[in-house]
Amino acid sequence: MKTACELGRKTRPEIKLGICGEHGGDPSSVEFCHQIGLTYVSCSPFRVPIARLAAAQAAIKEMK
């Protein structure tokens, strides 16, 4: 997936890449998506708070 993101961005730097489904609400999956450069994750409405928190934690972790 990381290779696909990198190659896609070489061709279209503005491309938005993401995943949909239950992985979008799983904290470890959200961190993985952040690490490989996905733009967004999509998940069930009841998982949105978890996904937002996981995304913020991944961004902070990257800054350290």
TrEMBL record:
Residues covered by the PEP-utilising enzyme C-terminal domain: 12-59
Keywords annotated in UniProt: Kinase, Pyruvate, Transferase
SUPFAM superfamilies for this protein: Phosphoenolpyruvate/pyruvate domain
Superkingdom, taxonomy of origin: Bacteria
Listed InterPro entries: PEP_util_C, Pyruvate_phosphate_dikinase, Pyrv/PenolPyrv_kinase-like_dom, Pyrv_kinase-like_dom_sf
A Pfam family of this chain: PEP-utilizers_C
Any one GO molecular-function label of the UniProt entry: pyruvate, phosphate dikinase activity
Identification of the protein by name: Pyruvate, phosphate dikinase
